[in-house]
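Re: that backbone. Tokens:
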């Protein structure tokens, strides 16, 4: 069995024949050999337990092997795995209705996929078909997928290849008020804000205006007069929990629509209650997208994705035939349905709000205590801790230093993630069922790891 294989052998296979590139993002000097999971906990092959605060990049929403979801999956596995979309199976209809009921009007038509990249590919195609335009805009630092189409949306060189891709894809400045050129020290840094607000002048955020000017400049210079779509994550995930200034998305949606484009919210990381105050990340921005794409948390780790759009856009798209062999298979739908029930019945969105706000507030104290913690931000259980060499220069903490702290946190029993364009941000996006006690444990571990680093320095 795989357990009988030596760690050495497993590592050799991984490095040689099993998508060796991923070793680059496996980060740890001593890789973790994961063996089993239960809710917010993971166990390695030696039986050591970890508190999982990364959840497979915000994917495990209701807990590893959540017994209720496992039961739903097993029940369905015993009945039917697959047919084809040409038959009617109750599971898919029931699930589509349940999912659509969680979105505001007019977002009502559901297409099921198997991943986030696939969902974004489909959304891009829909936008182009519906508008008759080609050009698509994203924000720098964004991650929207690694498939040949979605890689063009992704605006992070680490995930790009020197091949022809991204035809018709353009990016504009990400309004990052911590690291970007505007906002900076003047932006209020209360960690529990919905969005970042700049206090440059009362009631008006200058940073937002400046970044919107950049968007306008891009419209004047880079794209034709009519575009297909804007894709935006409500909070950047891979980018390092980057939050935009107040009204940035609202103003952007307006400009995009003036250019004939539609607006797409990528909720792959922010959806399903993770941000606490709302079920969908876009709702905190007071905008109404034309298409919402989702994946990750939708299936609690089971490969699933979805695109939800309006009847009007679905009508344009119906001029052709779109088919997806595995999208919406009965097993995925049974799991998806059970995930939605679990979020509702276990109050997990509320838990994200309460536990997430507590975590953000306490992390802000660590920011004030440690010179190398530059910024604490996020919402609910979608959190970023940006590390710097010092608070004045804000130079990103070098990779080696990040790795040391990261390794130390792991050795003390907590798994977190890293992200950001320079790998300078710790990412915390745990299963949505974590408790205040878990948070206290992590805070003690993180504080200790920071102290250890500072002592060694
Ligand atoms: N969108 C966002 C915001 C993501 O974070 C990701 C994955 N990191 C994707 C899309 C792509 O999802 P997948 O890996 O399932 O293709």
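Recovered sequence:
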């Amino acid at each position: 069995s795989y357990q009988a294989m030596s760690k050495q052998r497993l590592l050799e296979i991984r490095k040689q024949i099993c998508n060796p590139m991923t070793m680059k993002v496996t980060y740890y000097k001593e890789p973790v050999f994961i063996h089993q999971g239960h809710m917010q906990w993971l166990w390695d092959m030696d039986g050591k337990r970890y508190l999982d605060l990364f959840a497979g990049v915000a994917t495990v929403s209701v807990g590893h092997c959540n017994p209720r979801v496992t039961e739903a999956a097993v029940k369905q596995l015993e009945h039917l795995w697959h047919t084809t979309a040409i038959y009617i199976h109750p599971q898919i209809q029931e699930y589509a209705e349940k999912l659509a009921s969680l979105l505001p009007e007019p977002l009502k038509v559901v297409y099921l996929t198997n991943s986030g990249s696939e969902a974004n590919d489909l959304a891009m195609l829909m936008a182009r078909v519906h508008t008759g335009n080609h050009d698509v805009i994203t924000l720098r630092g964004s991650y929207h997928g690694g498939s040949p189409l979605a890689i063009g949306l992704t605006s992070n060189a680490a995930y790009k290849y020197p091949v022809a891709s991204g035809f018709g894809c353009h990016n504009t400045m990400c309004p990052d008020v911590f690291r970007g050129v505007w906002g900076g020290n003047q932006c209020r840094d209360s960690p529990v804000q919905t969005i970042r607000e700049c206090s440059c002048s009362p009631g008006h955020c200058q940073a937002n205006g400046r970044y919107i000017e950049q968007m306008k400049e891009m419209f004047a210079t880079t794209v034709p007069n009519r575009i297909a779509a804007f894709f935006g994550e409500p909070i950047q995930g891979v980018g390092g929990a980057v939050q935009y200034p107040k009204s940035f998305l609202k103003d952007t949606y307006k400009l995009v629509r003036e250019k004939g484009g539609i607006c797409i919210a990528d909720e792959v990381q922010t959806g399903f209650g993770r941000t606490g105050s709302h079920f969908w990340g876009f709702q905190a921005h007071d905008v109404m997208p034309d298409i919402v794409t989702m994946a990750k948390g939708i299936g609690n780790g089971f490969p699933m994705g979805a695109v939800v759009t309006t009847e009007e856009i679905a009508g344009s798209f119906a001029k052709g035939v779109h088919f997806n062999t595995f999208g919406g298979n009965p097993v995925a739908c049974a799991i998806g349905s059970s995930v939605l029930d679990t979020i509702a019945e276990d109050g997990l969105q509320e838990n994200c709000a309460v536990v997430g706000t507590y975590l953000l507030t306490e992390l802000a104290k660590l920011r004030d205590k440690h010179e190398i913690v530059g910024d604490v931000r996020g919402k609910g259980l979608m959190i970023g801790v940006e590390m710097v060499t010092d608070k004045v220069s804000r130079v990103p903490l070098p990779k080696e230093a990040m790795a040391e702290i990261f390794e130390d946190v792991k050795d003390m029993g907590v798994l977190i993630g890293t992200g950001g364009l320079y790998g300078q941000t710790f990412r915390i996006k745990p299963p949505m069922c974590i408790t205040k006690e878990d948070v206290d444990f992590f805070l003690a571990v993180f504080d200790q790891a920071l102290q250890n680093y500072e002592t060694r320095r």
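The chain has 13 helices and 15 strands. The domain at 32-53+347-456 is CATH 3.90.1150.10 (Aspartate Aminotransferase, domain 1).
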